[in-house]
Design a protein that fits this description.
Layout (H helix, E strand, L loop, with lengths): L4 H16 L6 H11 L1 E8 L2 E8 H5 L4 H4 L10 H5 L4 H15 L3 E4 L5 E6 L5 H13 L24 E3 L6 E3 L43 H4 L6 H13 L22 H18 L13 H30 L8 H14 L6 H27 L4 H7 L1 E4 L2 E3 L2 E3 L2 E4 L3 H8 L9 H12 L1 H30 L1
Helix pairs in contact: 1-7, 9-14, 12-13, 13-16
């Protein structure tokens, strides 16, 4: 196979099919035409010298006799079935690649007069990938007259169609595997292989292995089977740290309700779905340990990866919260005037234009401090998940006579202990008006004292006058 000749011939052939609007309902007939276009250059070493000959793949697959070909070419026999009647295009490409790799190694064959010949393929094996890509892209590429897609292919059965389902409530169509956990947005075909949603081409890892989901439906239950209550509780704690909200269902330490919805089993199913799809998106990360003996062991790399991602995300969100929590709209002149008037009148003094200007910035700063404190209080709230994470299980199983009494239990920290261990102190909110009044008491102490002195004198004068009038009446 020369580097470009076969590829160019195939692309011209595909273009002609589009022009003629002549497409195949039978994959094997299409493959037969492709085989006749693929040229196989062979290096033939005979007793009389070395020659090079080129044959079509279709001709070699017809198994020409020694008299027709000039030598025996039996090395194609193991690949004949997959190269002529493949299950799908992917298996055809794999067989073609393996055949050419095998044929690239020099082999001794019997020549026309029982001489020994040495035969080897001398073309570019990698052009197989280019041919595959050209055909895959063409298969779903729409023409001016007709729209094509992975669900409506030019060559029926060239690639497996995606497996889909429909939401009974919304009517939305989404991808779905009926055997494995998979998300609605990852395209998967009927063979449970991840595919390109546009062309149907199989997704592969760096070693060329087709990417498939690992965790089967129902496997979420399996991770709890046979575990002690202590082990189940430890797993519950880990799930809570990964985002399971124990307040959203009837959480029971050390116990799993396998028939309930929205609990630990459903959460593990979500994690397995995420692991399957993430492993297909980032195969180089090794997010699933396929060789682990247990389901939780297989899931462990993904859980550790998710913890790291969650920690980074939470830190980023917290930094944004801290950065923008104090962003509040500055108080308007009317707001400043209203609160300053109220506080000044309570202290028996009258505000001036300069006072409004002075206390506007102080009032604004106090509002920022209050907003920051409110964000900190929200951050410091202790959740049920926090308490579960800090709890410890114990076992006081005892045996009296022939009877055994289970003693599984859980100790939880007090609110004060939880806050101390979590570094979440209990904080009081900031009352902006009250704090502004305290500042006024300090800054306006002289004016307040003078006002109070005037009030005191006025009170004394009024009292004197009242007493004098009583004296005058009595006199």
């Amino acid at each position: 196979m020369t580097t470009k000749k076969s590829k160019n011939q195939i692309e011209e052939y595909l273009s002609k099919l589009d022009d003629d609007k002549n497409y195949y309902q039978d994959l094997s007939i299409f493959i037969k035409d492709i085989n006749n276009l693929i040229q196989i250059p062979l290096r033939i070493k005979t007793p009389s010298g070395i020659t090079g000959e080129e044959y079509s793949l279709g001709y070699l697959l017809s198994l020409p006799s020694r008299n027709e070909l000039g030598f025996d070419f039996e090395s194609i026999m193991p690949y004949k079935e997959e190269l002529t009647n493949p299950e799908n295009f992917e298996s055809y490409i794999n067989a073609l690649y393996q055949f050419l790799e095998d044929a690239s190694v020099e082999k001794e064959v019997t020549g026309g007069v029982d001489d020994t010949y040495t035969i080897s393929f001398i073309g570019d094996v990698d052009v197989v990938n280019e041919i595959q890509q050209s055909i895959i892209d063409w298969n779903t590429e729409s023409t001016e007259e007709q729209a094509f897609s992975v669900d409506n292919q030019k060559v029926t059965g060239l690639v497996a169609i995606p497996q889909k389902s429909q939401d009974p409530e919304t009517g939305d169509i989404y991808f779905k595997s009926y055997d494995y956990y998979s998300g609605p947005n990852m395209a998967i075909n009927e063979s449970n292989q991840y595919i390109d949603p546009t062309t149907g081409q199989l997704k592969k890892d760096g070693q060329g292995n087709v990417l498939t989901p690992v965790f089967r439906m129902g496997e979420a239950t399996a991770i709890f089977e046979g575990l002690s209550q202590e082990a189940i509780f430890e797993l519950q704690q880990e799930l809570v740290s990964l985002g399971l909200d124990p307040s959203s269902y009837n959480f029971v330490p050390g116990v799993i309700n396998f028939t309930a919805k929205g609990n630990e089993v459903d959460f593990v199913a979500q994690l397995m779905t995420q692991a399957n799809d993430a492993n297909a998106m980032f195969p180089q990360l090794g997010l699933i340990d396929k060789n682990a003996p247990t389901s939780i062991g297989k899931l462990r790399p993904f859980l550790e990866w998710k913890k790291g991602i969650d920690e980074q995300t939470n830190s980023w969100v917290e930094s944004l919260t801290e950065k923008f929590a104090g962003e509040v709209v500055p108080p308007s002149e009317a707001e400043v005037k209203s609160v300053v008037d109220q506080l000044f009148i309570e202290r028996g003094i009258n505000p001036t234009a300069r006072d409004y200007q002075k206390y506007a910035s102080i009032f604004s700063n106090l509002q920022i401090e209050a907003a920051n404190r409110a964000a900190e209080i929200e951050k410091n709230k202790v959740t049920l998940g926090d308490v579960i994470g800090l709890s410890k299980s114990y076992n006081t199983t005892s045996q009296v006579g022939p009877y055994t009494y289970g003693g599984f239990g859980v100790t939880t920290p007090s609110a004060e202990e939880a806050r101390q261990q979590l570094g979440k102190p209990l904080l009081q909110p900031i009352d902006v008006t009250f704090e502004l009044g305290k500042i006024m008491d300090d800054l306006e102490a002289g004016r307040i004292d003078a006002s109070q002195e005037l009030v005191s004198r006025a009170t004394q004068a009024a009292e004197f006058k009242r007493n004098f009038m009583v004296f005058e009446e009595n006199f």
